Amino acid sequence: MNKNIIFCLALLGTAACQPQQNGAPKQQADVVVKADKAAQGAVSSEQKLKEYQALLAWEAQAGEQIDGWMQEWRKRRAAHKNGRLADEENREMAKQAGEIYGSINQLNIHDAEVKALQQNLQKSHQLYIRMGDFINIQPKARTAEMQQAFADTALLTQQAERLKNKLNQEFGIKP
């Protein structure tokens, strides 16, 4: 969990250099994806397990890649006298983080619960980028929208943990 907090803080700095899409960031509505809303049809128990294992494998691989990303980010920051990256470096680092987390879209998931977990992980990443936008682009809107973004992230984390616990129990996987 500590690794996620450090990554979030690092991403906040790099997100500021990302171009805004559709104007200013907006408050997230219905942030948590429930399994029933993500339903894409019934799949066999074996297929569900394969999809869940693929998502867990992706999460582990992304975690390792983010560890490397954070080490590079720290190294680059330490190389600057003021401890801040130049805009171009921020854009490059944000692109790398986006590619790591964007790879979740390559997973072919059909089970409703596993799909909900995948979508919650995607939304968490989007919220971290939005938090960077609030800090660097909209300082006056920072308080209320930042609080909402943090609350949304907490909801996503809780829902993801519930889904993981349920799936782990269903398949007898020890975390």
Concise description?
The chain has 175 residues and is mainly α. It is 68% helix and 0% strand.
Mean pLDDT: 78
Number of domains: 1
Task: Assign the structural class, choosing from mainly alpha, mainly beta, alpha/beta, alpha+beta, or little secondary structure.
Answer: mainly alpha
What overall form do the CA principal axes indicate? globular
Percent of residues in beta strands: under 5%
Order of helices and strands: HHHHH
**Rg from Cα:** 17 Å
Termini separation: 14 Å
Poorly predicted regions: 15-29
**Into which percent range does the helicity of residues fall?**
55-70%
Q: Characterize the biggest β-sheet.
A: none
Please, how many helices?
A: 5
Organism: Neisseria wadsworthii 9715
Protein name: Lipoprotein
Salient structural properties:
single chain; 175 residues; mainly alpha; 68% helix; 0% strand; globular
Write the layout of secondary structure elements.
Layout: H1 2-15, H2 45-78, H3 87-102, H4 112-136, H5 142-171
Helix pairs in contact: 1-2, 1-3, 1-4, 2-3, 4-5
Description:
This is Lipoprotein. The chain has one domain. Helix 1 packs across helix 2 (45-78) and helix 1 packs across helix 3. It has 5 helices and no strands. The protein has 175 residues and is mostly helical. It has helices spanning 2-15, 45-78, 87-102, 112-136, 142-171.
